[in-house]
Amino acid sequence: MAAIALFVHADRPEALRLAVDLIGRLDSEGHEIRLPSEPAEAVDRTDLAHLEDCIGEKLDLAVSLGGDGSMLRAVTAVADDGVPVLGVNYGSFGYLTDIKPESALDAVGRFLSGAYRIEERIRLSCRLDDGTEVRALNEAIVEKVDSGRTIHLAVHIDGEYFTNYAADGLIAATPTGSTAYSLSAGGPIVAPTMGAVILTPVAPHTLFDRSLVLLPDSELVIEVLGDRSAAVAVDGRSLGELDEGGSLTVSVSDRPARLVILGRRGFHQALKSSFGLADR
What we know:
This protein has 2 domains: 3-121 and 256-275, 3-Layer(aba) Sandwich (Rossmann fold); 124-252, Sandwich (Tumour Suppressor Smad4). Helix content is 20%, strand content 36%. The chain has helices spanning 13-28, 37-42, 68-78, 104-113, 181-184, 267-275; strands at 3-8, 32-36, 49-50, 61-66, 85-89, 117-121, 124-128, 133-136, 139-144, 151-157, 160-167, 169-173, 197-202, 212-214, 220-225, 230-234, 237-242, 247-252, 257-261. Strand 1, helix 1 and strand 2 (32-36) form a beta-alpha-beta unit. The chain is elongated, with a radius of gyration of 20 Å. The model has no long low-confidence stretch (mean pLDDT 93).
């Protein structure tokens, strides 16, 4: 028997209905089911509620029912424990979530039968000066707090000063995150299984305005210059603000995300679908 956690977008009734169906099937087969507190309340199964800080302990599989945001939440909760994550797509793009809702029951069954493969994606280790450290599957962002006012940031790469930026912010992204905020800021699209760190400025006011694609063993330090504070966010979660002299250190984590892959739909197909690229 397996231990399976369901991460459900609680504002999507269709995702909640599927969660109820999955709970019924898995429970009838004798599997252990875990839910974060919010979806547990939404489906009236508070007996299955677990704290997200410990939901990944001795867990065999996490299933995300939602969009890429739900997938990020699931990865954040379980990746440090090496738990594979299966994504069921209720979003509009689905770069991370590959399974259609109508195929979810079958997909979980295939995982339990061993008919799957694992695709590892690098994550970033993001550390503040106060010792706070979190991991990111998509990106870490240092950006302006006040609208209309750029911030000044110094970048150090592998212990050596690189350059200063006057910009709205800087994004340090993984290849997985290259199709998220980094892409909207003009960054490159990078195949998600590559080993790389992508540094992209947001609305730069400097001559050098290009993205950098760095080796996966690179260490970045982004330091705030001047008296304008900068906000720090990791995969959409706020970590607070940095004042003058404060910095964010970014490197590749030794704990990757492990995604369950069942079909043949690859990254190129996801790009074609998302951008409406037609076959010729």
